[in-house]
Amino acid sequence: MSELVAENLHLWRGEQHVLRGIGFALSRGQCLQIMGANGSGKTTLLRALCGLVPLEEGEVRWRGEIVSRSPHSFHTALGYLGHDNGLKPDLTALENLRFATQLRRRAAAAEVAAALERTGVPECSGLLLRRLSAGQRRRVALARILLTEAPLWVLDEPASNLDPRGQSLVTELLAAHVARGGMAIVATHQPLGLVAPQLVAMALQ
Amino acid sequence: MNARQDQVEMTAAEPQIEGSGLGRAVVALVRRDLRVALRRSGDTLQPLGFFVIVTTLFPLALQPEASLLRDIAPAALWVGALLASLLALDLLFREDAQDGTLEQLALCGQPLASLVLAKTAVHWLLTGLPLVLVAPLAALALAVPPAAVPAVLAALVLGSVTLSLIGAVGAGLTMGMRRNGSLLAILVLPLVVPVLIFGARATAFAISGEAVAAPLYLLGAMAVLAVTLAPFAVAAAVRIGLE
């Protein structure tokens, strides 16, 4: 049973036909890896799936419901990490994560600390985001995704700015998420260490 | 550089936000925006400084005649308030759009209209309310009789609420653009002209000792309309701005 189904997605950006009839189905415990050259529309596809960019044609269904008509339950189940980390530079990592979590559910400080521990940056907890390196910020953003407890992760180049250990952290987190029955859509060229049927690969032209 | 200087004191005993869903999200958002504004108080206070400078320069530039100052006081106060509120709008969504937190608000599963209303309320608290609080000083500098000050303040409260909410629609639409100042002004100014007219009228009536109820009621009606309808327009504008 597929939880997330996309059918015949079309999108133009100005004169450019970026998404040309894209479709896929994703079930629990599956990860969709999106590959493609720079400018092939990976980010646009992810943003369109989330509902940040309206589709010109086609539909996305989450658990049978059309997302554009009833986005609420889809968004509640969605953890989105785009190019931007979605964190405020003037807040500490802890404050950022508590806020991001409180938008969705009650958050205990211990949980936040555990998530930072898991992504390898516990020492950054009390530091302002603007003082962290790009890689540390990305790790804090990954902790944010963990804290959403969302069944569906949508990650755009999650390992950008990360060192080799950070890159293997991303694959570990994804493997654990998928093993728990979670779903993920990841735009990356990095091997994710998963194999079919857990991994569905898609290449954009 | 000493890293410890940036270590912000951790509020370990911060109380848990109770309540479920939307209420909790709104409280968290209000707290976050207040905290960010406190850490960047320079940016937050800039529109207020602008208002004070504009309104206090008039008495210096004009002949120091009380009757003349009193005549231009409504115009000086309201044009100052309007331009200060335009200046402040840049703070409302732009940074949240740049660091990606606005996307997160749009995708968190809570109604965006309520969240942007909360954001706009905080914005008014930080830019509109201080303006109302310093307005008595500006009014005195413009030779407004003290008896007229309460009515002037009432008009400014109602007017600044409307200005913030209408401005938020324009701020949402233009937040993705670079150098959006002039476009924002072109979008917003025609919509806020009624606030300027009735606000200045109420102030003029108050100064000349006439009944101010009629323009105040109109300002109040506009504020109520803005509070109830603008959030939906702001949410739609933010979604367009995020594309």
Quickly list its features.
heterodimer; A: 205 residues; alpha/beta; five-stranded parallel β-sheet; B: 243 residues; mainly alpha; 80% helix
Determine the N-to-C terminus distance of chain A: 28 Å
Percent of residues in helices of chain B: over 70%
Q: Characterize the biggest β-sheet of chain B.
A: none
Structural class of chain B: mainly alpha
Strand fraction of chain A: 25-35%
In CATH, the architecture of the largest domain in chain A is: 3-Layer(aba) Sandwich
Q: What is the rounded Rg of chain A?
A: 17 Å
**Strand residue percentage of chain B:** under 5%
Describe the global form of chain B: elongated
- CATH class bucket of the largest domain in chain A: Alpha Beta
Give the N-to-C terminal Cα separation of chain B: 39 Å
Going by CATH, what is the homologous superfamily of the largest domain in chain A? Answer: P-loop containing nucleotide triphosphate hydrolases
SSE ordering of chain A: EEEHEEHEHHHEHEE
> Poorly predicted ranges of chain A (pLDDT <50, ≥5 residues)?
none
Number of strands of chain B: 0
Largest interface: A-B, 39 and 37 residues
**Helix share, percent of chain A:** 25-40%
Mean of residue pLDDT values of chain A: 92
Number of discrete domains of chain A: 2
Low-confidence stretches of chain B: 1-14
General form of chain A: globular
